Amino acid sequence: MKIAFRILSLLISIFFLVMGFGWIVDPGAAAEAAGMTLLTGLAASTQIGDIGALFLSVGFFAAFGQLPGRSRWLLASAFILAMAAVMRALAWGLGYADFALAAVAGEVVFTTILVIAARLRADEG
User: Fold this and answer.
1) What is the pLDDT of residues 2-24, one digit of tens each?
2) Residue 61: which of 124, 108, 2, 117 has the closest Cα?
3) First and final C-alpha spacing in the chain
């Protein structure tokens, strides 16, 4: 089971790194993949910077978590994803946005995988 969660957490890392680099190399396509249009001016800077940073941080933290004795970095990734799910739920609950079921479900599943992977590997190092 440990190896399965290690593989899953590695796949999560790769997914988020690819998505994050997409915000660098083709932000228009990255925005479209996320169901957005690319903004312009300072708003584009915020959109590209903040969302790109989120994806890259989750990806790099999960990658660092693959190293022996570094499983706590998986928890950093999990925390960011959990907060994204909470913010999406709050946006919906406060009437600012439609409920993004697929995104929230993905974030919850990825968070769960990362937390389990971190716990299974906590004794390494």
Assistant:
1) 999 999 999 999 999 999 999 99
2) 117
3) 19
